[in-house]
Amino acid sequence: ARKYRIAVVPGDGIGKETVPEGLRVLDAAARKFGFELTLDHFDWSCETYKETGRMMPEDGLEQLRPADSIFLGAVGWPGVPDHISLWGLLIPMRRGFDQYVSLRPCRLMPGVRTPLAGRTPAEIDFYVVRENTEGEYSSVGGRMFEGTDREFVSQQSVLTRTGTDRILRYAFELAMTRPRKKVTSATKSNGITFTMPYWDERFAAMAAQYPEVKTDQFHIDILCAQFVQHPDWFDVVVGSNLFGDILSDLGPAVAGSIGIAPSANINPEKTYPSMFEPVHGSAPDIAGKGICNPIGQIWSGAMMLEHLGEKQAADAIVKAIETLLAEGGPRTRDLGGQASTVDLGKALAEAVAAG
Ligand code: NAD
Ligand code: IPM
Ligand code: MN
């Protein structure tokens, strides 16, 4: 049978609840479609940090390296500063494994209520393509003269030509596979005068290589407004690391719930394992209660299977999610229901098994 080795990192908070449901559905898909998943579990989290002073062992990335893919829950917990926990576990994977594409679908599923009155599923169906290794998330900067009145902090945004071109190319290639063939660029070249004009230049140069693709661009401020007012304008939206981050919470919010939004952190060359995780975080406000929505995690599992080449199985999982939502199946509180995290995982696993 086809075999894949999956590194499983539940992480913190609701990650510990969503990941088991993700695995339940992946297991159902593996049985149904005749492949095998070998799971290696890594219980790295903020608890590890409190015990050892590190989010993961020094050779953590080397331990993950042999995996075909990484299946991650969420990282971050009160008591450990977020920049320590995230830069100790999540960000090192994205950067160390050169997962330079963050791919985040935003779809209004039939049966899910959008906060935007009158919008239909056909009108909210786009991808955010987020640059995932550089930009505003740089390690260049620092704090000086701490505690004095000369104290200052600075952080550089870094756009490399290679890094900019490869994410733009990915966005255009993705658009070429879609009926509308449109790419929107998120910029802010009116206020940020080195990096963003450069981004615009590289965008224009890439657009010239794809004459079939329609393009437009908006400054990030008005783009946020347009996501709310005209979500139907968008097909593929490409942005820098920070702009893509912001848009990929706003997109799922207009599509009904952050709890169902999936994401893929992709190294397209497959030199390194890619990583699959929901868009949401560890949700300390609802963690431990068994009420969080596992769909973002489960859908991320489908994206993982598609990346591994198991397209049929991936489609079956997405189909099961669509059917459950459209036909009034069990739903969690964020979608107005009373079902538990486990109820949803079981319902979706059964649906996949039943085909
Ligand atoms: P969050 O996504 O954890 O939560 C935001 C809100 O959405 C909360 O009210 C939460 O209850 C709700 N929510 C999130 N996921 C849900 C789900 N599956 N079902 C139902 N409701 C859900 O964002 P936050 O509060 O900004 O961050 C909490 C922690 O998670 C922080 O430490 C943050 O740094 C971290 N974080 C991690 C990741 C990641 O690991 N990729 C992503 C975002 C935030
Ligand atoms: C995300 C998260 C992370 C990010 C945080 C937790 C560092 O918000 O995956 O969107 O900003 O990339
Ligand atoms: Mn985010």
Question: Can you lay out the helices and strands and say which pair or pack?
Answer:
Blueprint: E1 2-11, H1 15-33, E2 35-41, H2 46-52, H3 60-64, E3 69-74, H4 82-96, E4 101-107, E5 125-131, E6 141-144, E7 152-155, H5 161-176, E8 182-187, H6 195-208, E9 214-219, H7 220-229, E10 236-239, H8 241-254, E11 262-266, E12 274-278, H9 295-308, H10 311-326, H11 341-354
Parallel strand pairs: 1-2, 1-3, 3-12, 5-10, 8-9, 8-10
Antiparallel strand pairs: 4-5, 4-11, 6-7, 11-12
Helix pairs in contact: 1-9, 1-10, 1-11, 5-6, 7-8, 9-10, 10-11
This protein binds nicotinamide-adenine-dinucleotide, 3-isopropylmalic acid and manganese (II) ion (MN).
3-isopropylmalic acid (IPM) binds at residues 76, 86, 245, 279, 281.
Strand order of the largest sheet: 2-1-3-12-11-4-5-10-8-9
Distance between the amino and carboxyl termini: 20 Å
CATH domain class name of the largest domain? Alpha Beta
The run of helices and strands is EHEHHEHEEEEHEHEHEHEEHHH
Bound molecules: nicotinamide-adenine-dinucleotide, 3-isopropylmalic acid, manganese (II) ion
Number of H- or I-type helical stretches: 11
The overall number of domains is 2
Helix/strand structural class: alpha/beta
What value does the Rg take, in angstroms?
A: 20 Å
Oligomer: single chain
Apparent shape: globular
